[in-house]
Each structure stands twice: as C-alpha cells, then as structure tokens.
Amino acid sequence: MRSGAAARPSRPGGPEARDGGAWARSAGQGNSGAQRRPAARMRNAPPLDQAARRLPGPRLTGLGGGLFCGAAMLVLACLDQLLFEASLTVYGVLFLPVAALTALWVRRGDLVTAPVVVPIAYAVGLLVVADGDSGVAGRLVGLVTALATQAGWLYGGTLVAGVITTVRKVRMLRRRVAARRRSG
After folding, report:
1. Rounded to whole angstroms, how far apart are CA atoms 97 and 83?
2. How far apart, in Å, are the Cα atoms of 175 and each of 105, 114, 116, 159, 180?
3. CA-CA distance, 116 to 60, in Å (whole number)?
4. Predicted confidence (pLDDT) per residue in 25-41, tens digit
5. CB 106 within 8 A of CB 113
6. Is the pTM of this model over 0.90?
7. Residues in contact with 15: Cβ distance below 8 Å, sequence separation at least 6, in sequence order
8. Do 42 and 53 touch, CB atoms closer than 8 A?
C-alpha cells in the first residue's frame, strides 16, 4: 500500500479505476479483513504460543549454522574462562542449548549439516577452556584429554541436534505427502 493514497483523487486510468476502486478503498480504510484475521488468532492462542510466535525464526544455511554454532561456542568458552575459570561442566551445559538452537535455525534443505557442525563447534570452543601446557603440542594434548573426559556433553549435544533435525525432517516429509494427497 502506498502512503497518502486516500488523499489522492482517483485517476481515470489509474489502479483504482482498473480494479473497481478496491485499491483506494483498502488504502483509505487502513486495515482490511485479511489483516485482522491473524490478530484474532493470536488473541485466542495460549500465552506461551503467543510468545513463541514472536521469537525470531532465522533460517541459517549449513555454513551459516556452522559459523553461528562455532562463534557462539567460542564466545561462551571465553566467558567461561573469565567467569568460571574454565569449568568444563559449565561449558558442556552451555553447549546443549547452542546445539538445539543450531538444529532449530538451520534451513530445511540443510538439516543434515546440524549434527555435523555441532561437534566441530564444541571442539573449537574447547580449545579455549581445555587445560594444556604452553605451546601447540600442549594445547593439543589438553584438547584430546578434554574431549575424552567430557565426551558425554559432546554426545549429548550431538544427540539433541540429531533428534531435533530428525523430527523436523519427518514433519517436513509428512507435509509433502499430505500436500500430494490433497493435490492428486
């Protein structure tokens, strides 16, 4: 809709004349019936459902999901280092919601990437919080030790991402089958 359309007179060959003036009427009223329907549904929905609808629903590509997850785990690892003196348990607990968000926010076409990028991102952030001597070899030994001793968090986050992506994939396939049945 254009602003100021109601104040402008209708031209003989303009869009108002071609569609019987419906464009001018809808612009002049400011809200049509199509705009009122979603608001009515929102009023009848439970409060938790309303809050969930207001949350952003970004759709990340496979690469974007990996970058999001890796960057989030790196930032959380730095915060863990500063606030909790590199607690591996805190890092593992923070990993679970990041894994879930990554699996929820990845695009439908890239669902298979979420369970792959989540463990890689865990290892990226673990470089910051893993105990190790100075030098590259000491850091690698600390990383391998932390991966071995904290494997439960790694498996848990990967499982969360895998379950979420599997559920999303099944729902997507069911919608396709239902759409085919309706059309054919």
Report:
1. 19
2. 19, 21, 25, 24, 9
3. 14
4. 444 444 444 444 454 45
5. yes
6. no
7. 23
8. yes
Q: Which two tokens stand for residue 93?
A: 């607990």
Phi and psi dihedrals of 106, rounded to 5? -75, 145
Dihedral of the alpha carbons of 162, 50, 43, 107, in degrees to the nearest 10: -50
* Alpha helices (H) along 106-135: 114-129
Give the pair of three-digit tokens for residue 14.
């303009």
Q: What is the pLDDT of residues 4-30, one digit of tens each?
A: 444 444 445 544 444 444 444 444 444
On the CB side of 146, CA atoms within 13 Å amount to 23
Judge contact between 44 and 38, C-beta under 8 A. no
